[in-house]
Amino acid sequence: MKIIHRLTFRYDSKIIAIVNELGIPFKDGFICVCKIAENDARWHELSELLKPFDIVKCGHTLIAEFSKKELDTADYLEIVSKWHHGYPEPSDTIMGFMELTYNVQNYCQKCGIGAFQKAPFRFKKSPVWGQRNILQLNWIFDEYFVKPEIWREVFEPFGIGCRPVVLDKSGRELDSVVQLELTELAELNDLDDLPFDTCASCGRIKYLPITGRFMPPPNKTSAAMFRSNQYFGSGASANRMVIVSQELFAKAQSAGLKGVSYEPCLSKQISN
Ligand SMILES: [Zn+2]
Predict the structure, then answer these.
(1) CA 70 to mean position of chain CA atoms
(2) Are residues 158 and 248 in the same domain?
C-alpha cells in the first residue's frame, strides 16, 4: 500500500512558492491541488513548511494506492463508486424522495441513520451509461445501479437479486437499469481506533469515512456482496459500507465492470 497525501488550498502565492521550491507538481487554479507520496523525501519538509497555513489540518486527505497483489489476495474489498450520476427523485427536497422510497419511521434527519427502502428508486430519466455500466446516485452512497445485462452476468450468479427502477414522472419501469438488491449485513471488526460521532438527537453512532488505509475486516458471511452493520459519514449523511468477496471482485474485473474502484479489507488473520 502506498499512501498519497492530497492537499487542497486556495490560491496563495506563498504556498505556491514553497511547492515550487520543492519541485512538487500541482494543479493550479482558484483551488489548487497537490499530491505527494508519503515515502517521497520532500513530504516531511513540505508538511513542516505548510504548518503556518493550516492546510495540513484542513485541506488534507490521505489516499491509499493498493497493489494488484493486495487487491487480488484480499478476502473482501470495499466497492467504491467513481461515478455519481443523477439524483433520487423527487429531488427538490431531501424528504421528498426519502418518504417515497424509504420507511422513515426510525430515520433521524440530524445524522441520516435509520431509513429502510420500501419502494423502487425513482430516476428523472434513463441513465446515459457511456462506457460505464455501474453507478451510484448522488446522496445515496450504499446502493448500486447497473445495466440489466451486467446484473445477469456478474451479480445474479452470486445470488444477488435486483429491484426495478422507475421513472419519477410516470412510475414506468426502466428497462435500461436495475438496482442491486443488497439484503445481507455483516459486522465490521477492529473499529476501536476510528473516530466516530454520537448523534445528539438519536444517540446512534457513525464513523467518519475511512481513507488512506486498509478497510476493516468483516465477519465471514456466505453473501458475496453485503453491507456493514455500522454506519459511516459526516453531517446529515450516513451510509453503510458496501463490500464484495474476492470471487465477486474477480468476476467483476473479468467482466469489465466500469464505474467503481476497490479498497481491500484487512483479513481477520492479519488484524488479530
Ligand atoms: Zn441521529
Answers:
(1) 19
(2) yes
Total tally of structural domains belonging to the chain:
2
Buried b (16+ CB within 10 A) or exposed e, 50-68: beebebbeebeeeebebee
User: What CATH number should be reported for the domain holding residue 27?
Assistant: 3.30.70
| Integer Cα distance of 235 and 238 in angstroms | 8
CA of 217 to the centre of ligand 1 (A): 25
Residue 97 CA to ligand 1 centre (angstroms): 19
C-alpha of residue 45 to centroid of ligand 1, in Å: 41
Q: In the numeric block, which cell numbers belong to residue 22?
A: 520543492
Digit-coded pLDDT (tens) for 128-138 = 999 999 999 99
Q: Ligand 1 centroid vs 133 CA: distance in angstroms?
A: 34
How far is the C-alpha of 200 from the C-alpha of 180, rounded, in Å?
Answer: 33
Cell of 35: 499530491
Q: Output the CA 203–ligand 1 centroid distance in Å.
A: 6
Residues 232-252 have a mean pLDDT of: 97
- Tell me the residue range of the domain where 169 lies: 68-272
Instruction: Tell me: pLDDT of 269 over 80.
Output: no
How much is the average pLDDT of 200-220?
A: 95
| 232 CA distance to ligand 1 middle (Å) | 12
Residues 50 and 85 both lie in one domain? no
116 Cα to the center of ligand 1, angstroms: 15
In the predicted model, what is the mean pLDDT of residues 94-100?
A: 91
pLDDT, tens digit, for every residue of 45-83?
998 998 888 776 668 889 999 999 999 999 999 999 999
Distance from the alpha carbon of residue 202 to the mean position of ligand 1, in angstroms: 4
Integer Cα distance of 246 and 249 in angstroms: 5
CA 107–ligand 1 middle distance (angstroms): 8
Q: How far is the CA of 264 from the centre of ligand 1 (A)?
A: 29
